[in-house]
User: What shape does this take?
Amino acid sequence: MVYGGEEFRTTLAAAIDLEKELRGSIAGFNMPQFAVDMPGGGGKRLVSTFEAYDRDTGISIFQSSRIMERKSDRDKLGSNLYFYFDPLR
Assistant: This one.
């Protein structure tokens, strides 16, 4: 996370709702990409690519897009699931 950027974070639900509202109302090449930065090295993920999301608790699960060539590599790196938590308001 970027230092000092916490105030700009929003819930995943708000980002999803905003994306739905904008989609179809503006040209596709002008459509912004809404992303979340996964803590713990998960990288950036589009908000719509979550594996699971609970709007009540604000907990979402994203899967890493890294391709593992060997099972032994996967065992060394651990799980490829990343949890994202909505900011407290």
About this structure: The chain has one domain: 6-85. Residues 35 and 45 are 5 Å apart (CA to CA).
